[in-house]
Amino acid sequence: MAEETATAGGAPPVFNASMQWRRIKSHFFVALGLLSVLLGIVTLLVLLVDVIVQSAGWLDWQFFTSFDSRFPERAGVKAALFGTLYMMAFTMLIAVPLGVMTAIYLEEYAGDNWFTQFIQVNIANLAGVPSIVYGLLGLQVFVRWMEMGRSVLAGSCTMALLILPIIIVASREAIRAVPPSMREASFALGASKWQTVRNHVLPYALPGMLTGAILAAARAIGETAPLITIGALTYVPFLPEHPLDRFTVLPIQIFNWVSRAQSEFHDLAAAGIIILLVVLIALNSVAIYLRQRLRTRY
Amino acid sequence: MIKTPLRNTEAESRADAIGAQTVSVEPRIHAPVEVPDPAVEVRGFSLWYGDFRAVTDVSIKFPRKKITAVIGPSGCGKSTLLRGVNRMNELIGGVRTAGDVLLEGANVYADTVDPVEVRRRVGMVFQKPNPFPRSIRDNILFGSRINGYQGDEDELVEAALRGAALWEEVKHDLKQSGLALSGGQQQRLCIARAIAVSPEVLLMDEPCSALDPIATLKIEDLMRELAKDYTIIIVTHNMQQAARVSDFTAFMLSDDTARGKLIEFGPTTDLFTNPTDERTEAYITGRFG
Predict the structure, then answer these.
(1) A127-145 pLDDT per residue, tens
(2) A199 contacts chain B (CB < 8 A)
(3) What pLDDT does B5 receive?
């Protein structure tokens, strides 16, 4: 303390720069960060290479055109692939219109009162609910009460519930990104609320909404737990032709094969994983492309 | 939802409270100006954002087919008054008004009046050019389409663009985006868009504040042209601009007693050369604001 007072009294301030030590610390943290990044990437790479090696020889045309079988060499993902496609089509058909309309209502129409705040908080919470809970809900409500059975439709409704919060949040952000000046310009020309939303807010927010919807779809395609709960874990030797038909999906087929004893089925699971990964990467790429390409500039 | 931040400091609310309680807020217009046939008449107009009173008891007649400039320092309520004419303030929640705004003699705040209809009849140009991210043609036609325009669209586009002195510059490519234009051109496109729905009054909220001097000059020339057909009310920070373009000038001020009062209104030449109120004189000579 005495020394500091002396410094304040007029003597030139003394610094102990210790550049050497500061440089070392700086380098140390760069190294630590790089290590963290590499740890993640290397782990993923090892897993990927392992899966690819395992699936070698199994990913042929027969794999796509065959149903599941007791004999590994005759088993394929046809039912699972089509089941995933059907289920996702219905899921998006249900979730996107509902989600987008909810977002429009909350952003453009709803007043700022306790009720809308209550809804907003709960949407955020719903996005964090474990997916198995949605499965239990779907089992009780769609499979039993609404008597849809263990069908494509029941699966779609459950999945739609699961991704609805994601779509709502993404759509709201896209709507909020439309500058107020666009709405003002529209209103000042004598447009009604709906004309403003329909002609300006929606079109300008569309790329953001699309991106959100695709990312939500990617999430749903990889989900397994809720579908196991509602009973999609079955041997399905046919293509679903009706929304109320039984079905299975890719992640469940993979899960099914992994839990078999013979190692050939484990290789089949690896092949299924490759297909699932390709679908997911493709979807994410489309989302990124859309975001870049269709971005509205004001 | 359009959200505007409200400035509501302690001092401001105190001033507001005092104004509401004790002090008479009659505008002190020393030499009343006779406006026989106003296009817009504001009568005892006040506006509150929640508890915050932004405009206090303003009465003013805007002369037909003339340019009236509303000047005053920041926070004097001039933009709020302007937005009160086409009821744009109501897009923000929690806005309350008192008094009347008569458009051709009919109160736009009457219960039977739909603000959507008011806004078609009263065009508005904003501070920052805000063309839609669409083609020039679509920018012009949006207002007419939503209002059920029956005539020829090509004619309307040409007439509006000619009216806004933009036709010669853009006629070769009406399909290009409105955003591809320069700032000054964008603002003229916004003016063209506004006059395409045949409004009776044009409101301009600091239309040149985001533009360079040359673009500003073009807009000012255009305003003189437009004043042959339209009643124009312009809010501006720029006193030289008010002196250059306007026929009449209104000076507004917030002080310790009340916010957003009309201090003086008169022909621009009189107000700038021989102001009757000492506060007007202080403002136009640059002693504050």
Answers:
(1) 888 989 998 988 888 888 8
(2) yes
(3) 45
